[in-house]
Amino acid sequence: MEMACDERREFADLLAGLAPEQWDEPTLCSQWRVRDVVAHAIGYDELSTADLVGRFVRGGFLVNRINAIGTGDLAGRTPEDLVQLVRDHICPRGLTAGFGGMIALVDGMVHQQDIRRPLGVPRTIPSERLRAVLDYALYVPLIRGAWRARGVRLVATDLEWSHGKGLTVRGPGEALLMAMAARPDALQQLVGPGKERLAQHI
Fold this sequence. Notes:
Blueprint: H1 2-16, H2 34-42, H3 49-58, H4 63-74, H5 79-88, H6 102-119, H7 127-137, H8 145-148, E1 152-156, E2 162-163, E3 167-171, H9 173-180, H10 195-200
Parallel strand pairs: 1-3
Antiparallel strand pairs: 1-2
């Protein structure tokens, strides 16, 4: 949970420094602008159990439709309002607080990078936090990193972390995470004989 809170603080700081026009820039999430990704990242925190069930019903229990409903409810707000919403939810609540805050941590880290990469705003993620997310991303259902990395061995070059058997793929831990999260943009930073096979699963 402490890591999730730290991740959201850094996310809020990033957003507070964006220029107005950057909020409508595209991200690595297909068809989502920066403001849409932000709305999605915090869109579950204020939902009660009844509200959450209602959203799932409205979305026909289809993940993309459920996410679109929540994003649509918030994405029209001003950048200032969205930044304040993130600051109001530094510590995750509701669904995102699940598994001791790990849902918020994984989702928040991936989506922060969805914004940073297209905007050309890199950062150094603390190794302990990145390692925790890499481990969890292997098995969380909405990422399925281990499934995407089947048949290859992922090896981080900037921290002690590896996973799998097979042809090797090496690169920064953040790039391995984004590849496991099905972001082809990350392949540019990866090397090794298993890269082509990994690319086929993204």
